[in-house]
């Protein structure tokens, strides 16, 4: 058994989401959002490298020694699937292992708003799930794919870096392709997928102009495209897409977003009141005529007002979602305020006196 499995096994036993290994510090576990060291010595450079080399293939070793970071999936000998990022830093190498549950989550088990199931009923267009790293975007998308897989007869093609949740074909056919193993880039994957008779294409990350452009083309030509962006609000998501493409395509991009963007879900993970878990809190934009007009006329700054008035159709701003979660006693107010835009609205809920000066000085 690779020696690194001992750390992973410990992490799973503790219920962590991530295991961090880096030179110069002891192994650490991400527990409910906080990073905690385990009782172990500081890892030495040669020691950690020897651990990692035991789980790499020859081709992965060659890539890593050529100076590239690695993203791959790893299954321990005693079980447990992980998404791995292997990198170098100033004092040596480092690795982060993200635990991927064996069971694909459902929207119901994740306690997601019912409107996310409605998004799965779209036959074409683009639905984006956004948020910072580690906010559960992949889990939400996996639950949406699972819903499609069990309720509709479709050809679903996922493009991932790396493959995380494994989806056995059920009512649908699910074809999972991995960056670096089955395809050179997300853009190449989308281009190929369009020749493979897809109904749904999942793009694991829309990280560059070419991928965004290809995803837009797929969404415009009769396919449902699910994708992610590392943006922290619906407005920032729309602005990022517009700014990512060349200036001469600006009007064309705005037109696409006005017509083919169906929804944007932005999520954060907020600690529960007992501190023993985290809950996904979602901002939801559903495109309609009013929002489409704001996009095409460069008035995206007015979109938050539309989110606040669109609750009857399932929309909500992040502040609204956070306040609802606080009222339902689902999240810790002192943690929720970190993600709020208008922090003063949350002042009456906060019990941590250290945060109050920060709130008072907020604009």
Structure at a glance:
With 363 residues, this protein is α/β, with parallel strands linked by helices. 34% of the residues lie in helices and 23% in strands.
Percent helix range: 25-40%
Low-confidence stretches: none
Q: Using the CA coordinates, give the radius of gyration.
A: 21 Å
What's the main sheet like? 7 strands, mixed
Strand content: 15-25%
Q: Tell me the distance between the termini.
A: 55 Å
Mean pLDDT across the residues is 94
Order of helices and strands: HEEEHHEEEHEHEEHEHEHHEEHHHHH
Number of helices: 14
Shape: globular
What structural class results from the helix and strand content? alpha/beta
Strand line-up in the sheet with most strands: 9-8-10-11-7-12-13
Total beta strand runs: 13
What's the SSE blueprint?
Layout lengths: L3 H11 L3 E5 L5 E4 L2 E4 L7 H9 L4 H8 L4 E6 L5 E9 L2 E9 L14 H5 L5 E6 L6 H15 L3 E6 L12 E6 L7 H8 L6 E4 L5 H12 L3 E6 L4 H11 L5 H11 E11 L6 E9 L2 H8 L6 H7 L8 H10 L5 H4 L19 H5 L3
Helix pairs in contact: 6-7, 8-9, 9-10
Characterise the protein shown here:
This protein has 363 residues and is of the alpha/beta class. 34% of the residues lie in helices and 23% in strands. It has helices spanning 4-14, 45-53, 58-65, 115-119, 137-151, 186-193, 209-220, 234-244, 250-260, 289-296, 303-309, 318-327, 333-336, 356-360, and strands spanning 18-22, 28-31, 34-37, 70-75, 81-89, 92-100, 125-130, 155-160, 173-178, 200-203, 224-229, 261-271, 278-286. Strand 1 (18-22) and strand 2 (28-31) form a beta hairpin. The longest helix is centred in the middle third of the chain and has 15 residues, at 137-151. The mean pLDDT is 94.
